[in-house]
Amino acid sequence: MKKKILGFFIITACTLLKVSAQETFKVMFYNLLNYPENDAVPNREDDLEFILSDYQPDLFLACELNDITGANNVLDITRTAINLDFEMATYVSNTSDDFSGDQNSLQNLLYYDSTKFVLEDEIIVPTDLRDFNIYKLLLNTIDQNTNPVELYVIVCHLKANNDPEDELQRFNMVVELDNYLDTLPADTNILLGGDLNLYTGNEPAFQLLLQDTNNITFADPVDRVGNWSNNPNFVDVFTQSTRTMSDLGGAAGGFDDRFDFILTSENMLSTANITYVDNSYQAYGNNGLSSCYNRAINSSDCAIPSSPYSFAIRDALHNFSDHLPVTLSLEADVTLSLSNNSEIVENIRLESSIVNNELVVYINSPKYFNKSFGIYNTFGQAVGYFQTNSDQRQVFSANNLSNGIYFIGFHESNTKSLKFVITN
Questions:
Q1: Number of compact structural domains in the chain
Q2: Which of 13, 109, 265, 400 has its CA 20 to 30 A from that of 214?
Q3: Average pLDDT of the chain, as a whole number
Q4: Spatial distance between the Cα atoms of 162 and 313, rounded to a whole number of angstroms
């Protein structure tokens, strides 16, 4: 009976591998802490490169950029850390203060993998403080002309501080966004990434975003709405502050607030043609330990031996910004129109997509010799890395992988991920 069950699983997995064209897209939002003007930590670009290399986002949403020089620096970092096909949207200085002396030097921007996304439009929704920067994207699929998958990405930074007038200003900013959203079809796919500076889920600004009578209602994918600030019960979603030292720039109060978010339109939780991957939402670098409350993120109190985020990544996060990034994955049943698909099929293949203890890869082009590649689970999380050599047939151990579906992807070249199933 056991053999029959295993055989059925293998047949089913093979069938899925043949007919499924499901693609996963990784998203990161990050407050870059007054980049590049804040230079209290020398060479912090190296920390950002390490962070992006570790997560490998397809969409990188950023706030607190100071100028076009910083924007271009970050673009260069994404191309080094992720792949050369990254592009950025148009850098536009904040327009919301054009009539008050251009006092705000904190801008938003989107970076994206241009092999997976096409940037169709860029919209600015001004407020009385900072812009909402909105980007209309199209998945770069083989049938995009007849069956388009559209995604609107909003990058924002609401008013800081916790006085009643600050809460009111955050609310008024969201009112301006809601007025714009009323002009879109109700089934529009929308992702909102931002430093919302919210101290509680009861704030009017947040409640307006989640209001179910809106034309477009947002959802908190991790479903952790509550009184976050200084509440250890919400430590798993805290993003600020990564620091207790006061001479690094930014806040120094230790880990005690949830300011950073990625929200999705409600339809993206279930019915849209691009949807949120369950359980993929993370405060990146946050190991979810109550002992980390009011500590620096690189403290030994913020990890145990089984924690997913190592000291190396937490130290880089500590050094680069007083905020943690927020990440999640999206998925869509599409076939991407990658220009080098045929090249990859010809030059890289798996001996079998059903793997027991060994993953066997055939490489027929020197272009892919001596390259690193990652093993990713269905949530887009890296679970291992391997280095190729110059042999045509290369064998890698898969003993540390549990049963399930995985993907491999080369970091140093633009390749379409290869899918395989572990059946130990």
A1: 2
A2: 109
A3: 88
A4: 30
